[in-house]
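agent: user wants the structure for RWD domain-containing protein 1 from Scophthalmus maximus. delegating to structure tool.
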Amino acid sequence: MTDYAEEQRNELEAIESIYPDSFTVLSDEPTGFTITVASDAAEDGENVEATLKFTYVERYPDEPPLWEIYAQENLEDGDVSEVLTLLQQQAEENLGMVMIFTLVTAVQEKLNEIVDLKKNRQEEEKRQKELEAEEAEKVLFQGTVVTIENFLAWKAVFELDMMELRRKRQKEEEQAGKPKLTGKQLFETDHNLDTSDIQFLEDVVFSLIRPNIRCIPDVHLLRRRHG
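agent: tool returned. relaying tokens verbatim.
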């Protein structure tokens, strides 16, 4: 017949000698105690830590002990769930044998794994931010990528601006006392402006098909050109 009390006393003495600085007895009837385990120190100095509380049941180790995470540092909810699941799996695999050291060792390894995953996630987030910053810089340098739709939209705005500039120029000339142009002169002036605008647009379109030139010209620059 198994002497459960004797096995429990012997394990308790062994656990106390293995974890002298992190082992604390909480109760005698039933026997309850805590063991604090922490991950290896991370490069940034931040580690994760869990204080595990175990309580012997009468038929331990033929039945698993009770356990809970008594306290923790830097563990997310998902990490806590994974640690509890791990304890359940390890307990089922070690029924019939004293298992506290095995359970604590498994949790220790799990905490190291959590730290490594956090480090990898942080590095990936850093890389992603750097890529986003590079893409934003490229967009800023290259301008808007030209498509038929946005070029036609830009051209419509350009033509409206040109019409407004002509009306403004004509009004300023009239206010300055310049003689009003005849119909023929006005046609020739408008024709020259149209020809200039068309040539400029052709130059723009030609430049857009060259490698590395992918921007729609700024309408404000065109205003200064004709202003």
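agent: one observation worth passing along. Strands lie at 23-27, 32-38, 49-55, 66-73.
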